[in-house]
Amino acid sequence: MLVGCASTPPPTSELNAAQSAVAQARAARAADHAPVEFGFAEEKLQTAKQALDQRQNDRARSAAEQAQVDAELALAKSKAADARARVKEKTEANARLRRELLGDNQ
What residue ranges carry the coiled-coil annotation (predicted)? Predict the structure, then answer.
């Protein structure tokens, strides 16, 4: 019995999508806001690249797809953290304005 993935085409598009998702997550500072998920994404992307080098195309495809999902989750968590920070800033600014308008300088 032969074991291998010679008949399965290389997962080029999946690998490209995973790399793009990891890059987007990195740009959104996911390493700061979602370090676990971002770390998983990077690890799985590395696994996908190694599997591709070893011509294990099914394993590479699976790892690339998992890396993309983890990167997308890390990106979403990073965007949510940024949004929470902006809401907090606006809430504090509104409170300051309210105190100024009402003459209450606490």
Answer: 73-100
